[in-house]
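In response to the reviewer comment on reproducibility (Comment 2.3), we provide here a single inverse folding case reported in full, input and output, so that an independent group could reproduce the run without further information from us. The C-alpha cells appear first.
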C-alpha cells in the first residue's frame, strides 16, 4: 500500500511539473494549444488503458509495462539538453547564470549564433551577458507568501473553489445518468469522451472569447443543468434527464480544465507549481466526495447534489472577480500577480504582451542595450 501511494504521488508530481514547464516554455499565443494538446494525449491514454489491460490479462504485466515506459521517460527528463529547466523560473528566482546557459542553448538550437558580429545577434549576446552581471543570490518563495498579496490569493482561492465544485458535482450528474448500478465501461468511456469534447471546446473558444467569459459560461451551464435535475428529475422525460446529465458532465470537465489553465496563468512564476498543485488538489478533493452519494442506499445523493448546486451558484458569482489572462505574459513575481486586476467582461485583455528579456530589476542594462542598438 505504501508503494502504491508513493507511485501515485510521484505520477501526480510529474504531471504537475510537466504542466508548469510546458506552460512556461510557450509564448502567450501558443499556451492554450499546447496545454489542450497535452490534455488530448491524456484522454488518449485513458481510452487505450482498457485495451492494454485486455491484451495483458494480468495486472503484474500491465504494471511492468507502465514501469518500463516511466523508466524510459526518466532518461529523457534527466537530460538537461533534452528537457531543460524553465528559464522563466530561473530568472524569477534570481538564478541568472543558469538561465543564461539555457537561453544561449535555445539561441544556438534555433540557428542563431549569439557570438556573431551582426548587430541583432551581438546585442543578443550582450543581453545574455548582462544577465550574469551582478546577479543576486537565488531567492525561493513559499506558497504561503500569497497571504501578503491583495489580489493573487483571491484569484487562487476562486479558481480552487471552482475546481472543487466541478470535481464534486460530477458524481451527481453520473448518478442522474445511471440511476441503477452502472457497469464499468459505460461511465468510463463516457467521461473520457466528454473530456475530449470539453478540451476541443476550450481549444476553439478560450482564445477567441477569453478565459473568464468561457469559465463563466461553463459555470452557468453547470448551475442550470444541476438545478433542473435537482428540481425536475421525477417530472422530466428520460431523454431530457439524459441530455442534462451529459451537458452537466461536459460543463464540469470544461470548468475543471479551464480552472487549471487559468490558475497557472495568474499565479506568479515563483509559486506557480505550488499554487497550481493546490487547485488541482481541490478538484481531486471534490472527486473524493463521490462515496458520500452511496451512503444509506444512495440516500446521501440528494443532499450532496443540493450542497454542490448551492456552491456552484456561489462560484458563478465569484468568477466575475477574476482578471483576464488571455494573451498576457505570465506574471513573474508576487507584485506582478497583484497587478492582474479585473477588467470589463466584454472587453478582453491585449492579444499579446511584448516584455523585455531582462527583468525589471535591471533597468540600467536595458538602457545600455537600447543605446547600443
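Designed residues, in position order:
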Amino acid at each position: 500500500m505504501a508503494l502504491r501511494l508513493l507511485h501515485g504521488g510521484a505520477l501526480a508530481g510529474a504531471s504537475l511539473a510537466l504542466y508548469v514547464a510546458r506552460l512556461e516554455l510557450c509564448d502567450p499565443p501558443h499556451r492554450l494549444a499546447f496545454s489542450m494538446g497535452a490534455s488530448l494525449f491524456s484522454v488518449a491514454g485513458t481510452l487505450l488503458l482498457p485495451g492494454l489491460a485486455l491484451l495483458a490479462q494480468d495486472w503484474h504485466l500491465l504494471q511492468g509495462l507502465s514501469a518500463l515506459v516511466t523508466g524510459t521517460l526518466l532518461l529523457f527528463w534527466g537530460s538537461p539538453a533534452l528537457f531543460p529547466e524553465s528559464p522563466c523560473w530561473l530568472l524569477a528566482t534570481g538564478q541568472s547564470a543558469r538561465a543564461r546557459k539555457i537561453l544561449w542553448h535555445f539561441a544556438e538550437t534555433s540557428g542563431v549564433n549569439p557570438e556573431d558580429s551582426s548587430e541583432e545577434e551581438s546585442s543578443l549576446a550582450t543581453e545574455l551577458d548582462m544577465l550574469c552581471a551582478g546577479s543576486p543570490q537565488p531567492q525561493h518563495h513559499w506558497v504561503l507568501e500569497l497571504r501578503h498579496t491583495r489580489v493573487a490569493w483571491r484569484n487562487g482561492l476562486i479558481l480552487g473553489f471552482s475546481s472543487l465544485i466541478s470535481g464534486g458535482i460530477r458524481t451527481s450528474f453520473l448518478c442522474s445518468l445511471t440511476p441503477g448500478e452502472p457497469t464499468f465501461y459505460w461511465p468510463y468511456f463516457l467521461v473520457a469522451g466528454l473530456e475530449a469534447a470539453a478540451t476541443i471546446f476550450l481549444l476553439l473558444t478560450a482564445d477567441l472569447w477569453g478565459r473568464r467569459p468561457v469559465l463563466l459560461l461553463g459555470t452557468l451551464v453547470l448551475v442550470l443543468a444541476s438545478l433542473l435535475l435537482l428540481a425536475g428529475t421525477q417530472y422530466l422525460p428520460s431523454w431530457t434527464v439524459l441530455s442534462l446529465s451529459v451537458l452537466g458532465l461536459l460543463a464540469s470537465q470544461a470548468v475543471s480544465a479551464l480552472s487549471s489553465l487559468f490558475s497557472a496563468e495568474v499565479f506568479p512564476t515563483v509559486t506557480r507549481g505550488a499554487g497550481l498543485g493546490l487547485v488541482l488538489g481541490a478538484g481531486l478533493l471534490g472527486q473524493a466526495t463521490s462515496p458520500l452519494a452511496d451512503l444509506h442506499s444512495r440516500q446521501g445523493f440528494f443532499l450532496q447534489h443540493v450542497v454542490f448546486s448551492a456552491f456552484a451558484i456561489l462560484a458563478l458569482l465569484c468568477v466575475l472577480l477574476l482578471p483576464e489572462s488571455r494573451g498576457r505574459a505570465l506574471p513573474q513575481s508576487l507584485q506582478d500577480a497583484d497587478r492582474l486586476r479585473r477588467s470589463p467582461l466584454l472587453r478582453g485583455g491585449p492579444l499579446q504582451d511584448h516584455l523585455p528579456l531582462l527583468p525589471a530589476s535591471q533597468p540600467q542594462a536595458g538602457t545600455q542595450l537600447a543605446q547600443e542598438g
